[in-house]
Amino acid sequence: MADFMTSTHRAKWVFTPQQLVEKYRAANQRAREVLEKGGTTLMTIDADGSLKYPEPQINTKDNANKRSRAKPVSIEEERCIRLFLEDKIQEVCKNFHFPHKIQATALIYFKRFYLQWSIMEHDPKNILLTCIYAACKIEENHVSAEELGKGIQQDHQMILNNEMIIYQTLEFDLIVYAPYRSVEGFINDMEEFCNADDDLLQMLKTLQETARLEVDKMMLTDAPLLFPPGQLALAALYNSNALHKVLDFDGYLSNIFSRQSSMHTKSEFIESLNAIDSLIKNYRCPPRSETKPINKKLESCWGLSSHDEGKKREKKSKHKSKKSSNEAQNAPSLA
């Protein structure tokens, strides 16, 4: 069985808060520099699969106007778009009835991708769908690109076009460790710790279900990039137990530390649990009204006018499958 302690997830993809800030700043600055030179930021794929910024267009009056209107998206605005679309990842996965592990893997892929790139460089709506597609593959729950595209009325070719970009950006580190399995492991351990009878087993089952919902909330924050899955799982169980009061959680933590050697003290560990809880409490999914003006700025960064975007949507519509009004109503909107 794979071991988190020896994994690339632990070695390469758990960061400090300052490291996250630096990575977001570096990606944003790179895109800003392209705009300052008069270019557009949406990267294209060469025939050999390499990525590049579009060649500067002929200096016509229309192109000059587009460049003058282009305003870079700030780091805070990038975060707003990411938060909005991460919520959409959960929505799409629930719409397809995907297991939690696919939802978690897709979210972590998306988060990791935008540690390396700015949303000005790769359309996050396209990357979102490709991350879900890649997660389905790696978690052995394969869904075709065509089926995924149909389900949300998007051109499936876009998913295939971005697949290799995702893998390269993730450095082919495709195995991720989500907290859901750790929650299950801790519940089994709690059964032994409490010497659980039938009534307590039922209470622990309730504790587990509530903890899964807590993990769902955590996955929308920076927590998966800052903490290992075991700590996330315990934080979820800690919050769940505060609600249901199933066991002496402080005593359970003491029991864990008495059985295992750890680089951290119990008090340091509780500080981590509180930090995770703070991330959850401070999380807010931005409403669509906040993302609309940012999307307009993105279009200008990509060199698109409202006319260009209209033509783009018209072209996409030709690829959409005919659906019943009920299906169309249920399809998640990424706008």
From TrEMBL:
Alphabetized SMART domains for the sequence: CYCLIN
GO molecular function: cyclin-dependent protein serine/threonine kinase regulator activity
Sequence ranges of Basic residues compositional bias: 313-323
Pfam family, one: Cyclin_C_2
CDD domains: CYCLIN_AcCycH_rpt1, CYCLIN_AcCycH_rpt2
Transcription regulation is among the record's keywords: no
Domain of life: Eukaryota
Biased composition, class Polar residues, residue ranges: 326-335
Domain Cyclin-like: 87-168
Keywords in alphabetical order: Cell cycle, Cell division, Cyclin
Gene3D superfamilies with a match to the protein in the record: Cyclin-like (1.10.472.10)
Chain intervals for the UniProt region annotation (Disordered): 305-335
One Gene Ontology term from the biological process aspect of the record: regulation of transcription by RNA polymerase II
Stored InterPro entries: Cyclin-like_dom, Cyclin-like_sf, Cyclin/Ssn8, Cyclin_C_2, Cyclin_N
Cellular component, GO, one term: nucleus
Subunit details: Interacts with the CDC2 protein kinase to form a serine/threonine kinase holoenzyme complex also known as maturation promoting factor (MPF). The cyclin subunit imparts substrate specificity to the complex.
Family according to the record: Belongs to the cyclin family.
Protein name: Cyclin-H1-1
Lineage, top ranks: Eukaryota, Viridiplantae, Streptophyta, Embryophyta, Tracheophyta
